[in-house]
Write a structure and sequence with these properties.
Layout: H1 14-26, H2 34-47, E1 51-55, H3 58-68, E2 75-80, H4 85-94, E3 97-101, H5 112-124, E4 128-135, H6 144-154, E5 158-161, E6 169-170, E7 173-174, E8 181-185, E9 198-202, H7 205-215, H8 238-249, H9 251-269, E10 274-276, E11 284-285, E12 291-295, H10 302-311, E13 317-318, E14 334-335, H11 339-346, E15 347-350, H12 358-373
Helix pairs in contact: 1-8, 2-8, 3-4, 3-7, 5-6, 9-12
The structure holds pyridoxal-5'-phosphate.
The site of pyridoxal-5'-phosphate has 14 residues, from helix 3 and helix 4.
Length: 374
């Protein structure tokens, strides 16, 4: 096992052990408790938003935000096609129709002009667009300078899925601060983890209060158990929040290591017929959750690389297969061309976790070079 190179393995130290043990010994296993409150405050402060709501997953956070925004059968939510299925699944849970939008070439993030076009076309057809979702893909923020004002002008709320991007920023604003609401994930392979968990972020007190209620079985504020709407059991436990608090103190260190890993891959691989997915905007700071490359058309068969390197214990992965190409969303509407499809066909995510040693990075790069030149 020790020689296996993972895509994005979690890294925990004695600090995490201390935090979790302290929470356990404090008796707060109820499941809510002081570590949940503190974790919410610390994340809100880090991102620069007023409120944070700790939840059982990033998917749960998306689901509750969409419910609050009025997603229901007959309405639509515009969403990037190039994303993890969770973004689209959360829309489907509400009964709303996801409408997918293509990527831009540079960084794979949603094409801002297409997203706005999709909103305008749908509304001209009389559809109710309850939200536009964006996804900060692989750890870098979208082009909010263009989308935020355009969506505001149209009165369409922005929901930012920042699951992959905690710690990234644009013009000094943190990922998770751009939408009316935003969501984070602390799943095991993300930039930091609670082993499983998520967070809803917003400046909107009403939105967060409502989602807090929805997340605890929609209990009304009376002495007995009174319920006026359907609720969910979506809160994060105090023990996991303690783990998250420890990880958060190490977030900058973990981002810095991923940045170094990215830089090393650039040095080792940039003469190959590939490009690194990256932002064209230099005021953006990535968290480099995953280093992702896109090969020039027809130079390699990505599927073969994933399989062959996998057999040798190197975990490289395909980029997200676009949602409009997924059987489960096959009948959904799509705005765009073949950009995200090309990113899927020619794209590869490289091992990027904190625990990688320099020799691991060298091994990945050497093996990739062989695969490309063969
Ligand atoms: C990981 C991820 C999610 C889901 O987060 P969970 O905590 O696993 O539910 C949602 N959206 C994107 C883009 C993700 O990468």
């Amino acid at each position: 096992m020790s020689d296996r190179i993972f895509l994005s393995q979690a890294h925990v130290t004695e600090l995490e052990e201390e935090y979790v043990l302290r929470a356990l010994r404090s008796g707060w296993v109820a499941p809510l408790g002081p570590d949940v409150d503190a974790f919410e405050d610390e994340i809100a402060e880090r991102v620069g938003v007023k409120h944070a709501l700790a939840l059982s997953s990033g998917t749960a956070a998306l689901h509750l935000a969409l419910l609050h925004l009025g997603a229901r059968p007959g309405t639509v939510v515009v969403v990037p096609s190039m994303t993890f299925a969770a973004s689209a699944n959360a829309i489907a849970y509400t009964g709303a129709d996801p409408v997918f939008v293509d990527s831009q070439t540079s960084d794979g993030n949603v094409d801002p002009a297409l997203l706005i076009e999709a909103v305008d076309v749908l509304r001209s057809e009389g559809r109710e667009v309850v939200a536009a979702m964006t996804v900060d893909l692989f750890g870098r923020t979208c082009d909010y300078e263009r989308m935020v004002p355009a969506l505001a002008e149209r009165g369409v709320p922005l929901l930012e899925d920042a699951a992959e991007a905690l710690g990234a920023s644009s013009h000094g604003n943190q990922a998770g601060s751009f939408g009316l609401a935003a969501t984070l994930s602390f799943n095991g392979n993300k930039i930091m983890t609670t082993s499983g968990g998520g967070m809803l972020l917003s400046d909107d007190t009403r939105l967060v209060d409502h989602c807090r209620k929805l997340s605890t079985q929609s209990r009304e504020p009376v002495a007995w158990y009174e319920h006026a709407e359907i609720g969910y059991n979506y809160r994060l436990s105090n023990l996991l929040a303690a783990l998250g608090r420890a990880q958060l103190t190490r977030l900058d260190e973990m981002i810095q290591r991923r940045q170094e890993i990215y830089d090393q891959y650039v040095t080792l691989l940039s003469d190959l017929p590939l490009r690194f997915l990256q932002s064209a905007d230099h005021s953006k700071i990535d968290n480099h959750w995953l280093t992702t490359v896109v090969f020039e058309d027809d130079t390699v068969d990505v599927d073969t690389i994933v399989r062959d390197l996998g057999l040798e214990g190197i975990e490289v992965r395909h980029l997200w297969k676009p949602m409009h190409l997924q059987p489960v969303f096959g009948t959904s509407r799509f705005f765009g061309g073949a950009v995200s499809e090309g990113l899927f066909k020619n794209g590869l995510a490289l091992p990027s976790g904190f625990r990688l040693r320099d020799q691991d990075i060298n091994r990945v790069a050497a093996r990739l070079r062989e695969a490309v030149i063969a």
